[in-house]
Amino acid sequence: MQHFKTINCLDIGTSKITSIIGQYPENETKINVVGVASVPAVGFKKGQIINLEQASKTITECIESSERMAGFQINHAFISLTAPHFESFNSKGVTAISGASGEISSVDIDRAIEAAKAISLPANKEIVHVIPRLFTVDGQEGVIDPIGMSGVRLEVETHLILASTPALKNLNKCLEEIGIKVDALAYSGLTSAKACLSETETELGVALVDIGGSNTTITIFQESSPVFSGVIPLGANNITNDLAIGLRLPLQESEKIKIKLKAYADKKGFEDEIELTHLGILSEDKKKISFSTTVNGIIKARLEEIFGFIFDQIEDNGFKNSIPAGIVLTGGGSQTILAKEVCADVIPLPVRIADPPRLGGLVDDITNPAFSSTIGTILYFQTHKINPKNNSSNKKMKVSFDGIFGRLKGFIEPLLP
């Protein structure tokens, strides 16, 4: 009889919360989605809890919907999260080789990692990801796996991703109150990357830009590992707000225009006068909108601002000339009309829009860029093979070790805070 493993994930975005339940045979990796649900992020603002009771109801509703589809209950989940409080540092750790033989062991790697983590953290911040990138053994750079090599001095370059301790505690409290134990937490820039980027892109150098409702995450990769992770508190909701003001329409109708305008233009071509009924909108006060005013006068201006902030981050951190694979756009905001074109105009690099990979099962409604982080979350944690049985009793959200160090994870579990 074939045995199946189950993986439960909760993706907490800025505009929606998504619960996804997947199953796969023990000896295979192909995931079959058996339950999925997505609900508006009521009780949250920009990915952070602003009303604990409402947030608990939102997550409960989301999880229960996915449970009904799957046909069974869950009591633990992997979490993907984005919020403006995420930030990153690159840090080096150095240690002397301790063994009498001079051979590098897992103990030496542990000590180098600990040295890299020994930085002065900002107030109320904690490390949620430690991502070892490359090792240096006695001046020999670019070592991927130093175990068994001989040397005197071991250095490790790491990428550290930090998050707000109070915000994580509030989320953990919310989940505990509804009976969901946290297996592990991931920054959504990493989960989206799992779904959207190729090995070639991460090796060459690439910037993944995930445009959500209220936040835009930027994750830059070089040599197959992240070197910059950050969040800009601007997103597709800002475009909706601009449309509501500029067109004098309610937010709900403005959101429909933003979502449907690209598909309409692709199908119908350029028409300056657009009947709102063609976009599925019935309005007593307004019957038509101007395409040029809506797109060039409102949407384009906000997109230019968003991509201008992104380019500033890339330039200010010195990556303008070191990401030849360019910009990969994803997230619901990437489906906005002119998003790719404006990005290419503002940022002088190649641009493409990424869809997440197609999984088996109930995925028709989530195989689009708006759910890249959701699908990436289930792929990310399946790859990392973190065992929920070992984590479910841990009340503190677990730090994650990623990248080239993933296969050495078994050696460093004791370092998890």
UniProtKB/TrEMBL annotation:
GO terms for cellular component: cell division site; cytoplasmic side of plasma membrane. The keyword Membrane applies. Residues 7-196 form the SHS2 domain. The keyword Cell membrane applies. SMART domains: FtsA. It comes from the Bacteria. Gene3D superfamilies: 3.30.1490.110, 3.30.420.40. GO terms for biological process: FtsZ-dependent cytokinesis. It is found in: Cell membrane. CDD domains: ASKHA_NBD_FtsA (cd24048). HAMAP family: FtsA. Cell division protein that is involved in the assembly of the Z ring. May serve as a membrane anchor for the Z ring. This is Cell division protein FtsA. The lineage of its organism: Bacteria, Candidatus Shapironibacteriota.
